[in-house]
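G., before I forget:
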Amino acid sequence: MERHFDTELDDLKRGVIEMGTLVERAIARSIEALKARKAELARGVIEDDHVIDELDLHIDDKCIDLIARFQPMAKDLRLITTGMKINAELERIADLAVDIAQRTLELVDMPLLKPLIDIPKLTAVAQSMIGKAIESFVKEDAGLARTVVLTDPEADRLRNEIQRELIDDYMVKDGSTAPRAVQLLLIARFLERICDHATNIAENVIYMVEAEVVKHHPEKLTGD
Amino acid sequence: MSKIITKNLDLWYGSFQALKSVNAAFEANRITAMIGPSGCGKSTLLRVFNRMNDLIDGVRIGGEALIDDLDILAPGTDLVALRKKVGMVFQRPNPFPLSIYENIVFGVRIRGARVSCGDLDAIVESSLRGVLLWDELKDSLRSSALRLSLEKQQRLCIARLLAVKPDVLLMDEPCSALDPQATARIEELMRELKRNYTIVIVTHNMQQAARVSDDTGFMLLGELVEFDRTDRLFASPRDKRTEDYITGRYG
């Protein structure tokens, strides 16, 4: 049976896709600003964050409205509550993109510490995780969501590698590198947090699709 | 503890099978809601528990229905005792055209037992207190029950059941004739009553089932498709037919 409610749920999904697109763009721009040392681009990320904040409020309103008017049950209810949680995770990711942009503004006037290799790699992992997490929500694909969750250790590994290199190869050997190294350490930390938020999104999608709570239960991810 | 248990319960109206091998356990001091589309068998199941279906020509029943471990379908079951133990509330309140007082003591009087006036007064007071009506009606006990609002009539009908000290209250769409505020008050009353009674409610209103019940059964075409804790059934139903029904996709 065709339901008007499905049209409303499609609207919600479109809102989350739009939010995801804006967030991915914010990350891409903040890292591009870092790589290309473009202060203007970094400032643009900070200035545009209000657009994401407004969309965040709009999606929350939409979810509350759907719950109030339609009193959804079962999978419909899980889709809306998951939509709200994903929305909150995406908004936090956007704030981390702003944090990266702010660190970048600190770095652009200082000499380059080292060529950026692992930070772009970690960025690629983060962007892939967010993209797949959003896609898994839209397509209601728990299998794809599981691959996102299982990618998180790779993000942790890259972050640790960046941290080790910056501390051991730069800060310990030459204390004068610390002001720049600390900024890069923070950026790596922000990227790793972004991956954690993408993981949260994917865990919520698994609950939405399968009614199975995998958050805090890693053994349920692989069926071990 | 299970108050009511059905085992492979079948019921036919002539050649039409209205219940198909229903297996369920209704827990004591909990509210169990039965939901499902019209004609799914939920009211028929309810009427098995006080043998109301016996009044319909051509009914045949198979399997077992146990209340407190006794098979109420067994030949020789004392139907008067059963219906005293298992009271029923209907869609529309059906007070007798008598005073409030006489409505409540009606069941006690027809049992034929000699009860003193003082005892009757005490029964009226405790029954009306049980449905939270005593303070409002204590000064108008001799007024006609038919002058009460529909909600109060429904409460009075529940008080009339409480007077004969049942264990189980069956409620067949008890709020369908009531407005939302009156419905909310009856639901509050149900929560009070479950401390002392086992309640089974049939309702078309899924939000009501979700709000008020502890357990829910979903029936379709005479079959009990799913029976689970209410929070689980409405958030994560296991059967696709349940999912389709509660999300409005059925049909």
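The two ends of chain A are 39 Å apart (CA to CA). Residues 105 and 164 of chain A are 24 Å apart (CA to CA).

More on Monday.
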